[in-house]
Each structure stands twice: as structure tokens, then as C-alpha cells.
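ZP: hey, is the pyridoxal-5'-phosphate complex queued? I don't see it on the tracker
AM: it wasn't, my bad. submitting now with these inputs:
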Amino acid sequence: MTDLIAERIANIRQQLPTQVRLIAISKQVSVEAMREAYAAGVRDFGESRIQEAEGKIAQLRDLPDLTWHLIGHLQSNKAKKALEKFQWIHSCDSLELALRLNRIATELSLSPKVCLQVKILPDPSKYGWSVPQLLGDLAELEQCQALQIRGLMTILPLGLSPEESFEVFERTRELADKIRQQNWSHLQMQELSMGMSSDYPLAVQAGATMIRVGRTIFGERTA
Ligand SMILES: *Cc1c(COP(=O)(O)O)cnc(C)c1O
């Protein structure tokens, strides 16, 4: 049993180009299982809820070289806590949130790495910018100088075929390319956070630089 997590991680890594960063999504996962993932080489953990993450960050404080990634929707009243706990925020999903994060990061002298969460297809069940909204907000995002905006994050709508999934990932990459070609001086677009257990091979094929994998590493979540 103990080696199962290590085996799964090795199996995923085998399929990844070396530059793709594997983020182990540890929501609802025990710190014991996370330590096994650490022993197998994982240094990046992703959590969707601040409160759950806070406890784990404290319990894993003896592991000095971890990077924590926030992947879930952030309520504005938790922005300060998020900035204090996470080095990466993948789920920056509105201009309002970006401005708030920028203001608080400035006050705290922090410079978090940020991805902008975008919805390529309409999906009322998810947060994030639509493509036209995002393109319209870039000038204001460029002014968020405390944020190291590094790229885009996307979550696919449910129920897409593999072909449709691949197309959405490709369109995400093309959007990042388009923004990069606008030559903003502060906004960067080299990262693409996309791909989960069910679709990460397609995301990697389309150019993902960070994949967010939970169940394929840790097994089905029980809750
Ligand atoms: C839960 C979650 C993941 C991981 O999903 P798995 O299916 O367990 O791989 C990735 N990204 C986000 C935003 C999530 O909420």
C-alpha cells in the first residue's frame, strides 16, 4: 500500500516532458499521504480551500522546500490569508479579485505568482474570465505590479469528448500566445495551468506547463 502513491507518481512523470510541473492536488487528502508523495519527489501541492490548507501547511512545516498552489475560488475576505500561505494563486478569476490581491500584496510586500483563470467555453458553474472580458481587462491587470502574473489557468466544462477537450486546451494556449504577442511589459504568459486526472495527457499535448492531478495520485476522494 505504501508504495502505491510513489508508483502512481512515477507513472505520471514517465508521460511528462521534463519541463512540465506536476502539482499534486491534495484537497481531502491526509498529510500522511502527502508525505508519501513528498518522498516520491513531489514538491508542489495544490489545495482549493484556505482553511484546510492552513492546517496542512502547519503540519508539514518540517518539509522546507514545498510550494503551495491555490486552485479554488478565493473569497475576497480570505485574500490576505491566501497571500500569506500560498506562493502561487492559479484561481485569480476576476479583475476585482486581482486588484484586491495586488493591493494586499503591496501592503504585505509580497509578490505572489498568479494565473488568470479563463473560461474558453461558457460555463455558468465555474468562475473565471470569458475571453472578451479578459482581453478587455489586460490593461488594468498590467498595472497590478505586485502580482507576478505568469499565465492562464483553465478548467474544462464537464462532458467534453477528448477531441473537444484538446481543442479547448489548444484555444487556451492560443489565447496565451495572443496576449504574449501584445508585448505587455509586466504581464507574462509563459505558464499554462491545465489538465487534471481525466485529461492531463491532452493538456500536455496542447502545451500545458503545469498539470493539477489529484485522484490519479491519491485515489478517489471520499467526501
Ligand atoms: C480537484 C481539482 C483538480 C484535481 O482533480 P483530479 O480529478 O482529482 O485530478 C484540479 N484542478 C482543480 C481546479 C480542482 O479543483
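AM: back. The radius of gyration is 17 Å.
ZP: great, adding it to the tracker
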